Give the backbone structure.
Amino acid sequence: MLYNCHTHTKYSHDSAAEPAAMCDAAANAGLSGLLISDHCDCEYADHTDFFSMFQSCEKECAALKKRCKDLRVHFGIELGDPVYNADFAKKIVKACDFDAVLLSVHAVRLRGFDMPFSLIDFGDKNDAFILSYLIQYFNDVLYTVQTAPDFDVLCHLTVPLRYITLKYGKKADVHTYYPVIAQILGALAARGKALEINTSALAYENGFLMPDKEIAAMFLTLGGRYFTVGSDAHKPENVAFGLNEAAKMLKSLGVKDACCFDKRKIITYPL
Ligand SMILES: [Zn+2]
Ligand SMILES: [Zn+2]
C-alpha cells in the first residue's frame, strides 16, 4: 500500500487535473495515500498570486480529506527555486497549513539559461554547455538544500537528465557529478530530510528513477534515513505510475519503510 508523495492538479500551471479525480484514481489504483503538491516556483512570485491559489487548493483538499474514506489525502506544496526569492519562500510555506513541503530546483542559475530547464532546447547544445549546465544544476541543488529554511523532501535529484538524455538524446554521465551529489546527500541527511524517488522519467525509453539506485545507496551510506516515492503525476492516469518500481529498488537496498507527512511530521509506512 504505497503513498504517492508528489502529484499536481489544476492549481499547477501545467496541469488541468481536478483534485477529486486524482484522489479517485489513487484510490482505484490501491494507493494508501496521496499528497497534492502543486507548483510554486519562486521566480514567478511577483506575477502570480500563489497565496490565493494555495488557499483555494487547501479548501478543496480539506473537503477531500473528509470525503475519501479509503485514502489518506494530504495537502502540500512543491516549492521551486527558493534562491530566487528567499523572503517569499519563507512566507508561502507559512501561509497555509501544509502537510508537506517539497523542495525542487527547476531553473538553474546559468547566465542566459536561467529559465526552467523544461523550456530549454538541449538538442542544439554541445558537450561543454551540458557539462557547465549540469555542474551549475548540482551546485544550485547543494546551495538550496544547505540554505532553504523550511522543507521536508528533496525532489527528483538528477531531473535535468530526463530532458538532456531521454528527451534530447544527448550524452551525460551522472558519475561526473558524484562529488557534489555526495555533498547534497550528506547535507540532506544531516538535516534529517527525506530524499524522493521520482518515477516520472520511467515513461521514456531507457528511463530511470530520479535518483537511481546507486545514488539512493549513497544517501544511506551518508546517514540518510527517509525516502518518499512520487510519480509527479499531472494527470489521473499517471497517479500510480512506476511507484512499485521505486519501492522494489528501495527494498533491494534493504530499506524497509518509506515516508509521508501529516502537518509537517514524518510518518513512516512499511514498503
Ligand atoms: Zn518538479
Ligand atoms: Zn512536480
Notes: The radius of gyration is 17 Å.
